[in-house]
Amino acid sequence: MRNSGAMLILTFIAILTLQAAGVSPPGKPRLTSCRSPEKETFTCWWEPGGDGGLPTTYALYYHLENSETVYECPDYRTAGENSCFFNKNDTSLWVNYNITVVASNALGKNISDPVEVDVVYIVQPNTPEHVTAVVVHDEQGPFVRVSWEKPRTADTRSGWITLLYQLRVKQEKDKEWEEYNAGMQKYYNVFSLHPDKEYMVQVRCKPDHGFWSEWTQTTYVKMPDYITRERSLWIMITIFFVFIVLILTWTLNVKRNSVKLCLLPAVPGPKIKGFDKQLLKSGKSEEVFNTLVIQGFPPTTDYDNLLVEYLEVYDNEEQELVLDGKDLSEDCMKSKSPSDIDSGRGSCDSRTLLLEKCMDGREGSGSNQHQYSQHGETRWASTESSESQGPEPGSPESANGRGKTWPVVFSSPKPQPHHHYPVGAAKPAYHSVPEILNHLSPHAMPSNYHQLNHQDIPQQEHRFSKPACRHSQSYNQFNLDGVDTPAPGVPPSPSLEYVEVQRVNPENMLLLRPLSDPNREPEGSDCTREDYSKVKEVTSNNILLLQRAMSHQCVDDYSQADQCTTQQPPHPCKPAVHQSNSGMPQEAIRVMGNGYVDSTVLMPSY
Amino acid sequence: FGLSLPAVAVLLVALLCLDPHCRVGSAPICAHGPSGCHIPSLADLFDRVIQHSARMHSLSNDLHSEFEQYFLPSKNHIGKIYRKCHTSNILTPNGKDNAQKLAREELTEVILKLLMAWRDPLFQLHQSMAHQQDFNSFSSNKALEMGDMAHELRKGVEKVAEKMRVLGMLGNSVTGLSAAEAMLPLSDSGEAMSDYELLYCFRRDSNKVQNYLKILKCRIVPEHDC
């Protein structure tokens, strides 16, 4: 008792001393793996656990399942350090091996954990051998044929072991391998490799139930440089499309005009007569705009005079307002239609109005009768023309807008490009006779003669008649030479007075007489209602502008317009005009249907 | 083997009908007549049979690993197998040399014995797996398929053996065609084996069968894959 106790204590002290000295029993070894390369032998490896500072020996012991007999490892050397090799005689398949490793040194031993192994399930073959990769040239393109042999130790010939192969390919620079399963065959064709590149090939194998072998050593193969079918196809497609594009471009080029028309239809540009784009491009705006300038437009000095004058003329307050304030064209147009009768309406076409204004201006501008400038006339023409869209151009009411003047119808002596006055270029088929300034009084002889010039007479010099109202001035013309003029303050008579054309004298003068003349000869007077025309204006040069008078009356007053001298435009017709109705042939002015006077009638037929 | 009477009769009839022109294969495709049908050669039969056995073994392998994974987490293999497999009575070669030493007939016989021994246990296994709720239907179906495969394989091997005999490769000394004993999966102690044990044992036996068949094939028809 005491001895054992003492022994124990001594052992304990010894161990402590030994541990202090750094030696100990061995650590526990551990079996790492057991492998069989061909299902006929197998090897187990273990890992020592630490020798404890003392030389340690290891021993492997095993026993088969359902058997208690323990055997020791038959071969510690063949497989190397810390291994145990079981040869064919010691290997039994389909039997569990219970294997342990014992480490022992001077101080003790240590036993590893047991491991159960069935050899059939730990088969890991050796690597395949003799791997070759050869480039094979085919009509489809070159490919690589990889071939190899089975590992030497594996007996596939007797069917004892069945191997499945696998290979992998990559370029040097690639990260990932491309793997292919070859099954049980010992060759494989690799396609789709890039030309002119070097590839690495490796092969491994596996039994039908077991572990994969290690990869073989790398085999290198270089692909030749060739054009793939795919690439040549793309080249052909590219060429084809380039060809198509070229053809399309050429076609477009040939047909570019029609294409341009189709894609970019012409946008009508502004057409300004006289506007020269080239000049504009050249950058000289003055020249461009100069071409636009109409000679004689706008009217200059006389224009001002005209304006001034016309501002003064008014019939009554309303009319003045009408005249001054509004767009006269509308007003006049509205008020005046060719068929309209302006009897006492006080519109701009009112005779009384005209009368008034002309009276007013008479004194002031007696000397200026002749001051009808071309500008003014043209001005009027243009105003008329510009507003001639409404009532027909022949109407005096039209085109009265701007200048607050008596509307007048001109016929331009020559076609002006900027007049789109319908009558402009052609010989008008009408006259218009401005309304005759007239007075009620039969003795208003001074006032009522005009010179009428047939517009149709080509020989006549066509000049612009005076603007309509210059009526004041025209009035002046009538009222020359001490004619008894009615007082300026003659109140405007609301009624209109019409002039009857009595005859045309040889000098191409129309002799007029007022209709209100009680002495009026009924000689077939064209006092048919519709046959009277108003004399609008007398121009300086034998032009009497007639206006169709749709008046129903050959009404109350008329004055006889007798002979007038034609020489001097400013000269009004002499009072002698009204003297007699000396049997001058009445020339009827046949009125055309639309209000125009038929000028043919007025042809001198005497 | 003890052949039952009907089996003997069938075999006798087959033998009587035997001649090279007679159809051995009974595949329904060959109903049209000799011209349109391909008579499987022995090599083809062997291939078919080997494929069967491979499929059977892989099924058993899957089931066994499922079992191990879900029902036996412990890696401790000690005492895992408490009992022997019921087929341990059948002498089977445990190495290549031993297997090659066996004659064809014996080898064929061993195969048939093994397959026969597993007929009923597999059926039991499927039944017990289907009833237990631990298994999902997938496993249960695998067990069923495994059983059917074993049955088919046995039939196939019998056909192969017959063909071999016809071809004169098998001597008359073969008794392998006698029906193998249907064995009950009873351990020595008489207790029924558990499902896991059955799976474990069958996995091993199916591997044996596959191996033996391959050896047989490469011995008899070594042209392909040998």
UniProtKB/TrEMBL annotation, chain A:
Function: This is a receptor for the anterior pituitary hormone prolactin.
Domain notes: The box 1 motif is required for JAK interaction and/or activation. The WSXWS motif appears to be necessary for proper protein folding and thereby efficient intracellular transport and cell-surface receptor binding.
Source taxonomy: Eukaryota, Metazoa, Chordata, Craniata, Vertebrata
Keyword set, alphabetical order: Disulfide bond, Glycoprotein, Membrane, Metal-binding, Receptor, Repeat, Signal, Transmembrane, Transmembrane helix, Zinc
Biased composition (Polar residues): 365-375
Membrane-spanning parts: 233-252
Protein name: Prolactin receptor
UniProt xrefs under InterPro entries: FN3_dom (IPR003961), Growth/epo_recpt_lig-bind (IPR015152), Long_hematopoietin_rcpt_CS (IPR003528), Type-I_Cytokine_Rcpt (IPR050379)
Signal peptide range: 1-22
Annotated ranges, domain Fibronectin type-III: 25-126, 127-226
Molecular function GO labels: cytokine binding; cytokine receptor activity; metal ion binding
Protein's organism: Cyprinus carpio
Region (Disordered): 360-407
UniProtKB/TrEMBL annotation, chain B:
Record-level Gene Ontology MF annotations: hormone activity
Record bears the keyword Disulfide bond: yes
A single cellular component GO annotation: extracellular space
Alphabetical list of InterPro entries matching this protein: 4_helix_cytokine-like_core (IPR009079), Somatotropin/Prolactin (IPR001400), Somatotropin_CS (IPR018116)
One Pfam entry name: Hormone_1
Signal sequence, start to end: 1-26
Gene3D superfamilies tied to this protein: 1.20.1250.10
Alphabetical keyword list: Disulfide bond, Hormone, Secreted, Signal
Superkingdom of this protein's organism: Eukaryota
SUPFAM superfamilies reported for this sequence: 4-helical cytokines (SSF47266)
GO biological process: positive regulation of receptor signaling pathway via JAK-STAT; response to nutrient levels
Subcellular location: Secreted
PROSITE patterns associated with the record: SOMATOTROPIN_1, SOMATOTROPIN_2
Family assignment from sequence similarity: Belongs to the somatotropin/prolactin family.
Protein name listed in UniProt: Prolactin-like
Organism for this UniProt entry: Cyprinus carpio (Common carp)
Highest classification ranks of the organism: Eukaryota, Metazoa, Chordata, Craniata, Vertebrata
